[in-house]
Amino acid sequence: MSHFDSRRPGAPALHLAAGSGRTACAPADRSTSCSECNLRGICLPSGSKAQDDTRTRLAYVGRRIKRDDFLCRMGWRFESLHIVRSGFFLSRTASEDGRQQVIAFHVPGDVIGVDAIAGEAYASDVVALEDSHVCVIPAADMSEPGVRQHVAKMMSNELVRARCAMLWIGTLDAEERLAAFLVGFSERLFALGNARDDFRLRMTRLEIGSYLGLSLETICRMLARLREAGLISVDQRRIRILDMQGLRSMACMAGDQKQAPRRAALGS
Amino acid sequence: MSHFDSRRPGAPALHLAAGSGRTACAPADRSTSCSECNLRGICLPSGSKAQDDTRTRLAYVGRRIKRDDFLCRMGWRFESLHIVRSGFFLSRTASEDGRQQVIAFHVPGDVIGVDAIAGEAYASDVVALEDSHVCVIPAADMSEPGVRQHVAKMMSNELVRARCAMLWIGTLDAEERLAAFLVGFSERLFALGNARDDFRLRMTRLEIGSYLGLSLETICRMLARLREAGLISVDQRRIRILDMQGLRSMACMAGDQKQAPRRAALGS
DNA sequence: CGATCAATTGAGGCACTTCAACATAGGTGG
DNA sequence: CCACCTATGTTGAAGTGCCTCAATTGATCG
User: Fold this and answer.
1) Closest residue to B2, CB basis, from A14, A93, A268
2) How many CB atoms lie within 10 A of CB A202?
């Protein structure tokens, strides 16, 4: 099923999660008070003084999104932000000729839709990678102090992550990029209470490749190379990190050892 | 002069603007009321109803930054946002082993420093590409309604631009990337009252290359190729766009014609 | 248990990097 | 004003990392 224009001449007939065409109109849940949410401490309004006060006052409508369904589509009018309560999402954009790229993965606690605030329409498609659950935050609530602060922080975080990805894609070779991705993903899951060195990828090799600007075959090969180097073990989507130190240094996130490639060096 | 660790073994001895080592401690200016600023309408608090009211009330301290000086450095504690009043800036990050990448260019009206809100420290170096002038907005003022809205929009814009850059780097080949960059830069300048088809690049080929994940030689060659194709004329840093339609379609920002490369295609 | 999608691995080609030589512009001091 | 210097820009030739194409295996699901 095609949910896009992508019937352009000669387009490779690849298939991908999120092709099911359903459009995320799952019925709204009961609303839940923030003070009873299992994301207390991760989600809003962390850090503020009026914290408990705000939290008891706030209550948001939840929505369930099934695997492969859209949370929102490019061009939809911006009406609300969403916070991931459980599950995983992927965001992707497309250029006007239909080429797509994964530009973000979202884990519980993340705010989705901040790229729509400026344009008043969503700037990317957001797809659930597994059955998920989000809180709906009406745009009007962004002026609420506790919400405002949390949203500002999460936006800032998104920006840092996006720029981090730019740094990876622009300066690291394939093996390093994948190492950086794995370390980063591990850390995000760790912040949610996961083990740091044992997790399951929720996305396909194709989606990882798209995110990192590499082909899916290269992802496979580099996973194999990292495995052969004894840094990780790979079993389908289950990843175990055997040598975090080594992986980090390969990802240029610790002691360095490699010469920077030309296109990266800005000298100084 | 080295302002970084980059004396790593074998680092190529490239030199770049922003090596002067001065650290942007130019004396603060007189403060200026927002109602008298020449960015009225572009800058805050555009769009709000309490617009004129807020604008007359607000007044911000200005700061001058000389060419090649830093507005802020990675790791500095976050104390204030900056809005570019005049001039041009470049942001760049570095991985821990010293590889750098340009991650954004800033034109008048842009908010600088939003990536610091989450981490409470600046996440990138920001360098003036020419003598510039910024407004200093204390972090505390972010709760001010008019400011809040504008900052949220500009953050959202930054995120969109960053993701746009990811899309370019991840899915377009060198020639297309450069075309997209030129079109995008043209549009940003146009929004500031410039001609759409005649402008001056403020940055070196090296910096453009870094931003686009390409070597500076490739930038040269692709500029030549676009010139030979009759799409632009190039005279040093002065660019004239001779065929906007053609340039846009090459940048995949209008009618398409090319087959998407594999690494981009997410199928559907 | 077939059908479909995801993952793996090999072989070959090309786009871009790298290295290198040279041209040009802008600045400085004689 | 010149010669001189350094940073930037340009262009050529050669190497290579990753993409592309292709064929196979392994999961997953109705």
Assistant:
1) A268
2) 20
